[in-house]
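W.,

You were right to be curious about this one. When I first looked at the sequence I had no strong expectations either way, so I just let the prediction run and decided to look at it fresh. Below is the sequence, 178 residues in total, followed by the output.
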Amino acid sequence: APVEAEIRRRLGDHVYGEGVENSIENAAYRLLKARGETVSFAESCTGGLLASRLVGVPGASDVLHEAHVTYSDAAKQRVLGVSDETLAGHTAVSEACAREMAEGVRRISGADWGVSTTGYAGPDGGADGTPVGTVFIAVAGAGGTRAREFRFRGQREFIRTLAASNALNLLRLAMEGK
C-alpha cells in the first residue's frame, strides 16, 4: 500500500486504473459510458488505429458514434471542413489542423466529443523539416477544444500506437476536466 500510494503521488493524472483489464481504451470507454456520452474520431497518422482500439472494448457500440480516416488534405477539407487557409498557412500537421479536424468530426457526427490525430509517423517528416514523430492531437467538446503537440521517437507503428494511446488519454483527461 505505501508503494502504491507513492506511485500514485508521483504519477498523478497519468494513473487511470489498475491491472491488465484497465487499458486506456477501457478507461475512456468507462467514462463515456458512465456519462452517457459519445465520441467520434478523425484520424490521419493513426489510420484507424484509434477507432480500432476503442472497438476492441466490449460494448464500444454504446459510445463510439463514428470514425473517419482523412489521410489526404482533400479528405480533411471535404469530410471535416478543414479550411484552405489552415492547410496553406499551417499545413495538415499542425495544431490548427488538429483543432479543425476534431471540431469538424464532432460537428458532422453529432457526438459529444471529437478527437483527431495528425502527424508524421514516418518514414519521412515534413518538407519544412518537421521531424518524424511530430503528432498533434485535439479533443473537442461542449466546453471547447484543446490540442497538444507530441514528439514521439521510434518506428512508424510505435509512433502510431503512442499517438492512439495519447489521444485516448487526452479524451479521458478532458472528460475529467483536467
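Here's what jumped out at me. The chain has a mean pLDDT of 94. And, maybe more interesting for your project: The two ends are 26 Å apart (CA to CA).

Coffee later to discuss?

I.
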